Amino acid sequence: MKRTADLPVCPPPVVGFADRYTDGFVDTYHRHDRAQLSLFLGGTVTVSALGQSFVLGTGQGLWLPANTLHQAECRTDLTFQVVYVDPGLTEAADLPCKMFDVSSLMRGLVDEIIAMQYEFVMDERMTAIARLLVDEIRRAAPIMNRLIFPADQRLLRVCMAIVAQPGDCRDIDHWAREAGMARRTFTRLFHLEMGMGFAAWRRRVRVIEAASRIAAGQPVSEVAFELGYENAGSFSTMFHRTFGMSPRALRATTLTSGP
Fold first, then answer.
1. Domain count of the chain?
2. What is the CATH number of the domain that holds 100?
3. Averaged pLDDT for residues 214-229
4. HEC string of the chain?
5. Which residue range(s) make up the domain with 50?
6. pLDDT per residue over 56-99, tens digit each?
């Protein structure tokens, strides 16, 4: 397992490596003084940062600006590539946190950077590669399958309990009591902080969790049952509405797009 501490004392403006993490590994909250680009070649992972949780799978990438506090939790064995980008690289200075599908060009550019190891001169060619990589990240359309968490600690406590047990079917009255609020106060504050109702947010938790489980190989019908759906049909409808594909299409994509 590689760490940023393994890098040279004075690395080039862009430097990277490939690595693997095992199922269940948690890289606890930390930050880097450089921006971090992660490309996921196999497996699924949940990355928490900036009050959001991103569930990423094979063929997806995540850009984190420099000094972003974040944590990664592996849902399966994980194969990935990481490139650290000096914030002094002008093109990368204003890029926000973003999750996206990795283009073949981006993958090739990252391969070139990693192939250089750590000791190389940032000549004209490598500068062009770095600038083109950042431009590809900027141009990539963001993927929206992320979870947002509230600042209010009472609501946060409820949200974390639901994330821990996404198949829990207890109604909104129960969760309002857990938060120590009247139902009307709970629903109003939840919508104010989250930009959506409680039921919509919980559905989002379930389908994102479902995507992670399906990508890891769990049967679709089993996932639907465990996440509180009465039948696979209603689950598939909700899944397609969120991701634009059926659960089985996601399974097929995962099986054919390994590292």
1. 2
2. 2.60.120.280
3. 82
4. CCCHHHCCCCCCCEEEEEEEECCCCEEEEECCCCEEEEEEEECCEEEEECCEEEEECCCEEEEECCCCCEEEEECCCEEEEEEEECCCCHHHCCCCCEEEECCHHHHHHHHHHHHCCCCCCCCHHHHHHHHHHHHHHHHCCECCCEEECCCCHHHHHHHHHHHHCCCCCCCHHHHHHHCCCCHHHHHHHHHHHHCCCHHHHHHHHHHHHHHHHHHCCCCHHHHHHHCCCCCHHHHHHHHHHHHCCCHHHHHHHHHHCCC
5. 4-139
6. 888 889 999 999 999 998 878 899 999 999 887 767 778 889 99
